Amino acid sequence: MTARIGVITFPGTLDDRDTQRAVRTAGLEAVPLWHRDKGLKQVDAVILPGGFSYGDYLRAGAISRFSPVMESVIDQAKAGMPVLGICNGFQVLTETHLLPGAMLRNNHLHFICRDQKLRVENAETAWTRSYEQGQEINIPLKNIDGRYVADERVLDELEAEGRVVFRYEELNPNGSLRDIAGISNAAGNVVGLMPHPEHAVEPLIGTGRTDGLGFFTSILKRLVSA
Amino acid sequence: MARVVVDVMLKPEILDPQGQAVQRALPRLGFEGIADVRQGKRFELEVEGPVDDAALARIHEIAETFLANTVIEDFSVKVEVGEGADATAVKAES
Q1: Which pTM value belongs to this model?
Q2: B14 and A109 in contact by Cβ < 8 A?
């Protein structure tokens, strides 16, 4: 069995090809999906890749939220299908309210591009099973709207339920509250994060490490055991 | 055609680094005495037909679901009356 992982392209998406390649590198089948698609072509999971969907003209991720393909993604995510949002994909997931909170302009107002250390805080989500809790990974980060905010009640709830999946280590690059780099929904099938695991799956590119590959092998484990 | 203005502002408790950057630039430019600046967005909607309660309700919905992200932003809806006239507030903040 080869698991089919849908990778959505919106107008302005940049990292769809890298994400498809990362999916294939992990031994899975990458299925390109278009923002106007009404269905999801029977995929087993969906990734919303990074970029600037619809130019981020209103707010990052705000216009994508109303694209036809997102109706299916929202329905399927609520029914338990694994969904991963990377960077702009994370912004789309907060705009759809599949994940709580919102993403805002970095506190220093600069676009930032760096290798970023993260701590895996929850290794039990659909997308983090190949990691261990507390493991440090190093993957690229590149964004200007990466500051995660939510009100105190939501932040406390996320912490209490183990839904802070990744935290920034050593340096908080954007002013995200409580150093949050990624979160999940209550069921653990929907995960969003700002840094880019798909850029660190081969030793020749990105950080020179393959720390990001675990995301894509995690989903294989999850789908095989499901 | 009537114009309806939707103003969107970050909620008071949300850090606004863009507004702060503007505020910090003011003394350098010789403008003293501005204690705080917050930056928002203004949308001008040209409406076909009358701006009645139904039209305003629809614009309120547009603002709430799309123009503003109510997790982090407040918005207000105002109707602009006539050429160059002052805006008249007809719907409360949300």
Answers
A1: 0.92
A2: no
